[in-house]
Amino acid sequence: METAPIATLTTTDPSTSTMIEVEISDTQSHLAVDPSFIEGLVQRVLIRESVDCASVSIALVDDASIRTINRRHLAHDWPTDVITFLLSEPEDRVLAAELVVSAEMAASTAKDVGVDPRAELALYLVHGLLHLLGFNDDTLEAADAMRRREGEILALEGLINTFPLVEASSLETEGREMMSWPR
Predict the structure, then answer these.
(1) In which element (H, E) is residue 136 found?
(2) Quick one: CATH architecture of 5-175?
(3) What are phi and psi of 36, to 5 degrees?
(4) What is the C-alpha to C-alpha distance for residues 52 and 67, in angstroms, rounded to an integer?
(5) With DSSP H G I counted as helix, E B as strand and the rest as coil, what are the percentages for the chain, rounded to 5?
(6) 45-81 residue pLDDT tens
(7) Range of weakest confidence among 2-16, 24-38, 105-119, 130-144
(8) Closest CA to 75 of 144, 176, 181
(9) Rounded distance, CA 143 to CA 180, Å?
(10) How far apart are CA 59 and CA 38, in angstroms?
(11) Which end of the chain is more exposed for a tag (fewer CB within 10 A), N or C?
(12) Is pLDDT at 160 greater than 70 in this prediction?
C-alpha cells in the first residue's frame, strides 16, 4: 500500500489568477484510480463554483479506515462515502481542505447498482467538494439543492449521476441512513 502522495497537480492560469493544487494519497486496493481523472474533476468543479485558489488533499481509503475517521471525528461508528475537512477560514483567499473518500464503498456500490465505479467515486468527490463550498444536506430542501447541483456537475463531466439509482429510505438503524438497492 502506498502512503505517500501518488500525484500532485497544480493548475495555474496567469490570465485569471487561478491556482488549484490537488494532492492524492491512495492507500486502498479495492479500486484502481487514475490520478489525472481525480485531479481534473476536482479542478473543474472548483473553477465552475468560482474558486480560483485552492489546495485540496484527497485520501482514497478503504471502509475500515474511513470508519475509524468517522468514529473519531463525527462519533458515527460506520463506514461512509466521503468525509470533508475544511482547513481554511471563510475569509481566506485560498480554500484549503481535505477529503477522505472510501474507494472501497465506491467499488462496492457501483457493483451493486451496475455502474462504472469511476462514476460512483466522482459522485463522492463532487458531494464532498460541495460540502466544502457551503452546500449541506441536513434538511430535505438543502439536500434537494445539493443533489440538483451534483447532477448538473456530473452531467457537465459526461458522467452518470448514480445517486438516483439508490433509493434512500427514511428508516434509520443506530443513526445510520439505510439504503436499499434496486435489483
Answers:
(1) none
(2) 3-Layer(aba) Sandwich (3.40)
(3) -65, -30
(4) 32
(5) 40, 30, 30
(6) 999 999 999 999 999 999 999 999 999 999 999 999 9
(7) 2-16
(8) 176
(9) 18
(10) 11
(11) C
(12) yes
